[in-house]
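A student in our group prepared the protein record below, which I am reviewing. Here is the record exactly as it was handed to me.
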Amino acid sequence: MLRRIITLILALSMLSVCALAYTPEQYNVADALYELDLFRGRTANTKNFALDDGLSRDEGVTLLVRMLGKEKEAQAGGGYGNPFHDVPKGEWSESYVGYAKLQGFTDGVAVRDGKNYFAPDRAVDDKTFLTLVLRAMDYEDKIAKPQFTWENPYDLAQKIGLISTNKADKDFTRGDAVMIFWHALDAKLNGSSKTLADRLVEQKVFTRAQLNSARDIAAGIVPEPEFPDEPSTPSTPSTPSTPSDKANTAYTYKEYLSWTPAQRQAHMETFNGDYEAYFAWYNTAKAAYDAAQKDNTITGDGNIDLGDFIKP
């Protein structure tokens, strides 16, 4: 009986680990890309990044188009003629896939009976996503002397800094995808001294200041919120290193703002992989905080409360 109990406890522990297998670094990078409006959560207007989830091919292409700051351009194209037989007209991914085809990021998977197939529901592996990113950075795999091949994008990807090893990743996730793209921002475009980030700044996808702020977020540097009626040097928040001295849903959003990324991660983990419960707390706490700031935007003495303008 005791052996069965121990086995059950170990199994539950493994499930909990699997549910939160992404790293703090991946979460910080996802948060940084979120602030640049290049990455979104599974649930609208939340940070439910689902970093442990895999990607289908249509999701992978959509992710890349969004990361390149081309979402509006893609959506405006009305599917770009919908070149793929297995992407239904009006499908949510039609515009993204059509745009990716037009830009040369993807060619589909096969041509049968004169019809081009994309296989939108097929899982994306690291090889496919690296190929998409390298093509978006102007590297060639379709010329007589290609710089990389679809079968082996790893060597070039490692050389320019997208990945740390030229070995295949057998468990490719959204967390892995955001890390590849984040590294791509600082990688040189083919035949250019400019990086992908330089190109996106020039295209006004984001500003240099926004990029620098995102770099701080990715590095785990979170600026302290400032309030006009508080001392210029705020005191150290009395938040435990691992929030646990009260129920996880009892914390306020103002307390959340004072935490480091590691503390926020620790708080998320107290929900034991129940993302729905975590984001229910997050949205409720933030809504209460926002409402309080709006009620006190102009105080009786004429001071302005800037809390409503601070984005977590």
Remarks:
- The first strand starts at residue 110 and ends at 112.
